[in-house]
Amino acid sequence: MSLKLNPFLFQSQHLPSMTTFRSPKFIMASTLSSGSKSVENLKKPFAPPKEVHVQVTHSLPPQKIEIFKSLEDWALDNILVHLKPVEKCWQPQDFLPDPSSDGFEEQVREIRERAKEIPDDYYVTLVGDMITEEALPTYQTMLNTLDGVRDETGASPTSWAVWTRAWTAEENRHGDLLNKYLYLSGRVDMRQIEKTIQYLIGSGMDPGTENNPYLGFIYTSFQERATFISHGNTARHAKDHGDLKLAQICGIIAADEKRHETAYSKIVEKLFEIDPDGTVMCFADMMKRKISMPAHLMYDGRDDNLFEHFSAVAQRLGVYTAKDYADILEFLVGRWKVGDLTGLSGDGRKAQDFVCGLAPRIKKLEERAQARAKQGPRIPFSWVYDREVQL
Ligand SMILES: [Fe+2]
Ligand SMILES: [Fe+2]
What we know:
Layout: H1 7-11, E1 26-29, H2 37-43, E2 54-57, H3 62-70, H4 72-78, H5 104-116, H6 120-134, H7 136-143, H8 159-185, H9 190-203, H10 213-240, H11 244-274, H12 276-288, H13 306-317, H14 322-335, H15 346-372, E3 378-381, E4 387-390
Antiparallel strand pairs: 1-2, 3-4
Helix pairs in contact: 6-8, 6-9, 6-10, 6-13, 7-8, 8-11, 10-11, 10-12, 10-14, 11-12, 12-15, 14-15
The structure holds fe (ii) ion (2 copies).
Pathway: Lipid metabolism; fatty acid metabolism
Subunit structure: Homodimer.
EC number: 1.14.19.-
């Protein structure tokens, strides 16, 4: 779900210096060059080489990490309440034919009949969304990179660790349900999809959150809303194509994402209350580097630009667009009342101005890009047996 945003937009912004706030301890540089892509592909059978940039780690100073320890009880009362008890949760089986029932084969046939009415481009977006969900081990890993909130043992009783494990457990149903539905639909090349998932989990992700829970929770607030929007749109499109069961599946997943967004954005709201200056600078920092989508390193063993191609289809169908990106930013700026913050430092005020002015700028550029946009080429997607899909 990438966005065709003008990179110059971000480069030309004058961002406040973060040096007073963030003190990187370690800096690692990737050594891969994009020019050696095909050669590297042969040498690296597990994951394709991707972007080159500096990875900063542990940027949050120790005294700020203490904030999260002091918020343990607050998180217990305010964040864990957004988890649903397992007994009250839906399960994938609730939306799938029961393999032990006599009607199983008939129900599968019905799914396959409905699936015939749905075009390939829709499947490309649904498969991309499913693959994104299936790379869940990466997202749990990402949350456990965050200083002050990580699950130190794998079964830690802290509120933060309980949240992360239970959040993962709730999320695990999303990929599971979509995967089983797509398998039964008979419309997609499961082997190619499974390979893409294996590559993606092997590649990981690089959200640029620097072990910093401020950055991490801003990222997850944004991402949960992005997935809420995209699953909501695939639900709407499934309905338009006459598949109400699939619409229900996408809709029920979107509802989970919304609940998760509420929890993560509440954490960031609390950070704004405790440390407005530090939080607004992190928000600006995160937006300056752009919110990379969780599956940005996606690869199927064939298409070096698979993620860009998938994103282009999602953009064209209106499943997830550059306008959605700007809308999410605008929503979060309003949700966190960033424009109303007072008593900020000079750098804090610059970050505030940057963040508050960014969504309108993205929208203006996007409108211009849309006006200039030409129809993209048709390219084969291995997920739908190399049938060509319009970008
Ligand atoms: Fe999800
Ligand atoms: Fe999610």
